[in-house]
């Protein structure tokens, strides 16, 4: 069975300088805030939504949506990708490919 991947329009970054980053994207660049929670703020920046989260920096994370996350992750790991972080309570499943791109694998229809 094939698992079609398609990109969402979400990109997430993490930083320990969260308040400064939120101010930069919201005030300096003037991006409208579209989501706010205790540790994450989302901005509509035009072609995509940028989420700024408190925490250890890991570079930009893109998101691919699939019908079956478990099957997709198995396929990716078999193809040489590395599972970087997984937290089903978020839900979050970060995978890094052999070429350096990190992305979240999310369930289609839920993001």
UniProtKB/TrEMBL annotation:
Record's protein name: Glyoxalase-like domain-containing protein
Database matches in InterPro entries: Glyas_Bleomycin-R_OHBP_Dase, Glyoxalase_6
Lineage: Bacteria, Pseudomonadati, Pseudomonadota, Gammaproteobacteria, Lysobacterales
Signal peptide as annotated in the record: none
Coiled coil start-end: none
Superkingdom field: Bacteria
Domain Glyoxalase-like: start-end pairs: 11-105
